[in-house]
Design brief:
By secondary structure, this protein is an alpha/beta fold. Helices cover 49% and strands 16% of the residues. It has eleven helices and ten strands. The strands form two sheets. A six-stranded mixed beta sheet has the order 1-2-3-5-7-10, sandwiched between helices. Strand 2, helix 1 (29-43) and strand 3 form a beta-alpha-beta unit. Helix 5 (144-152) packs across helix 6 and helix 9 (203-216) runs antiparallel to helix 10 (221-235).
């Protein structure tokens, strides 16, 4: 049986590929569990400095929840599914290293929510995104009502969620939902180049910067500055900081070890 989430690790970069192309990589119970397990395995693997998440095939990143499976669920089972997928998106957002979403096609509902939980979003020119849940008389349940307005602003988020509208890659770029747009054949290469660029920075510093940004944005400026200070202090006693200074002095490329 094919793995529901394929894992490839090269040069400190782990690529996780949602592998249900016959169902447009939609989230069923098994895929939610599998992605959570793969992230759990990578969380304490210090050799991995960046994670890329994408979908198998050329049609879909993820079309959201598997509605065929959902239709057969009891209300209690739906509650359990929503709880678990919301927790999965939290795991993505709180993953200690950067997560890049390579949105290679359709990303609706939970697919857009997975992209929102990631740190950086790159999209194919063929990508279609949207939180379409209100068209099914429900609302985004895996963080969409909270993460989308924080990213694109309250007014645009309300318009997109209230209407359930789908937008193309260029519109996603215009409103700040994605960082950049690439031809389909170039998307994964662009994600890997960005991951490689991030991987050249001190891994502890990147981890602490992610923590400071994420936590600081949820509080007032003075508390955010205190969070930043504490994150900075953690970088001071590291071997990597001394290596960075030595490399600058010796005019060479630093070799960081995450220590």
């Amino acid at each position: 049986m094919e793995e529901l989430v394929q894992v490839e690790i090269n040069d400190h970069v782990a690529t996780l590929t949602l592998n249900r192309p016959e169902a447009m990589n939609s989230f069923n119970v098994a895929l939610v569990r599998a992605l959570g397990e793969r992230l759990g395995e990578l969380r304490f693997d210090n050799s991995v400095r960046v994670v890329i998440v994408t979908g198998n095939g050329d049609k879909a990143f993820s079309a959201g929840a598997d509605l065929k499976e959902r239709a057969a669920m009891t209300p209690e089972q739906v509650k359990a599914f929503i709880f678990n997928i919301r927790r999965l998106m939290d795991d993505v957002e709180l993953f200690p290293r950067p997560v890049i979403a390579a949105v290679n096609g359709v990303a609706l509902g939970g697919g857009t929510e997975l992209a929102l939980a990631s740190d950086i979003r790159l999209a194919s020119e063929t990508a279609t995104m949207g939180l379409t849940e209100t068209r099914l008389a429900i609302i985004p349940g895996a963080g969409g009502t909270q993460r989308l307005p924080r990213l694109v602003g309250k007014g645009i988020a309300k318009e997109l969620i209230f209407t359930g509208r789908r937008i193309d890659a260029q519109e996603a770029l215009r409103i700040g939902l994605v960082n950049a747009v690439y031809p389909p054949a170039e998307l994964l290469g662009a994600a890997r180049r960005l991951a490689d660029e991030i991987g050249q920075s001190g891994p502890i510093a990147v981890e602490q910067a992610k923590y400071a940004i994420n936590r600081g944005l949820e509080t007032d400026m003075q508390t955010g500055l205190a969070i930043e200070s504490n994150a900075y202090w953690l970088c001071i006693p590291t071997e990597d900081r001394l290596e960075g200074l030595a490399a600058f002095r010796e005019k060479r490329k630093p070799v960081y070890k995450g220590k």
